[in-house]
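User: My collaborator and I are trying to settle a disagreement about how two of our proteins should look. Neither of us wants to argue from intuition anymore, so we agreed to look at predicted structures for both before our next call. Could you fold the first one, then the second, and keep them clearly separated?

Assistant: That sounds like a sensible way to settle it. I'll keep them separate. The first protein:
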Amino acid sequence: MTFKGEVAKLLFYACRLFPIKKNKIVIDNYAGKGFGDNGKYIALELLKRNNKYDIVWVTKDLKSCFPKGIRVIPYISLKSIYEQATAKIWIDNLRKAYYIRKRKKQYYIMTWHGGIGPKKIEKEVEDILGKEYVSSAKHDSRMADLFLAESDFTYNKYRKFFWYSGEILKCGSPRQDVFFHDNKVIKQKILSSIGINNYNKKIFLYAPTFRDNMSENDLYIYKRQWKRILSVVSQKFGGAWIGFIRLHPNIAKLDKNRIFEEDYVYDVTNYPDMQELLVASDIVLTDYSSCVYDFGLTGKPGFMIAEDIELYKKQRDLCLDLNVIPFPIASSDEELVHIIENFDYDVYSKKIHDFYYNYCGLYSGGHASEIVCDRIDQIINENM
């Protein structure tokens, strides 16, 4: 049974009558999604340390696989409300619901799902977010005890545009740790999950973001000339290629059959961990999503397509000058094909380096999860 609104609020306050369990950590990924994003990599590090923490994951996807040592609880249920009301630490990457109130001895780590990226967010676009969201966001920031930043870019974002004045830990992003470690088996796992046993296949991942006030009539913006794109990619980089499409959670329920029909393009929207998809991919294409900025850490080719950029600027606008973005930007499939044909690794690599280290001030180095878990150990041990 799930609960919403005032009922959930009353149940949450009722559960606050129970004592806080000092070793309990509750993690939520994007309002009930599966085992992924920053929370996943923090949880894996906690499990590796074997500190006997009670790790609880709230999710709508109860059939998803979780490692031993994590208790899985239905999202927005009496159980999840009780677990959150009695946990010592919360970890979340999305704004919490308005009815949730942190207790004095609880500690909230906000691991925002975005990162370096061109889109304006939060206070930058306050006028289009709606009063309900802004109120919830301000409330969430008041509850937060710690934000995690992977760069000067995101640190400044949090300080200026997240209605937040608390501590920001310059540790890197836990979800980026995977790019700095051995991850050879990830591609095999993903290909096997969609029934492909030829692990030599190369993956072209298309991961567009959402548009505000989007409807089914707007899906044309996501259609790509898959046959031509994969053909030129194969000619340029060699190998046999397949396509992946990963839609933003805000548009995951739209009719993907109207976006692609090719049997060599696979829908991976519901795959729980975007980072694993990025690790497995050989090329990533997006429009305005921050995912390609994580992918750039691999050194592999990343591209952007911005065919509706003028309309997008009117709706949400960009905070990055297109001239500093290191990823080649196309305005159409035709231009994308041309850019791929003329791609130069040396030029690309220099732009990537200059962008991350000179422009954005990157902190990531593969140890963010360890740093965050050191803080968690400290918080919990202080109260034992």
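The second protein, kept apart from the first:
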Amino acid sequence: MRDLYTKLGSVDPTNLIAGSRYPIDHIGVTLAEDTGEIKKGTVLGKITATGVYVPVDSTAADGSESPICVLAEDIDTAILTDAVAYRCGYFYRDALIFGGSDTYEKHELEMQRLGLYMTKGVDEKGAVA
């Protein structure tokens, strides 16, 4: 497994993790093959029939319309389909990536129920943006 916790004690607003206010936990996921490069911070849903994960998209009707976790690393699905994702934690909402035209507002309450919390970022002076 890749070292995902090296800088857990520090907060960088350009990164995904917003701090340790809420516990961080991870799971292994299998991404749908040949869906291209999926970036760190992508919110994933799970296709019920196959059990594979894809970027969450509220227009889908296969199970992937509901968020499950947040991808913890960049993955090129042409090469690798197994990845690590966060199943709970505290994230900068502007660093999260959603499928389709979805935004954090669309999924915020559902994500909170799962333990995936979001906060605003901070500007270069450290003020909440």
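Some points you might bring to the call about the second protein. The radius of gyration is 14 Å. Confidence is low (pLDDT under 50) at residues 5-11.
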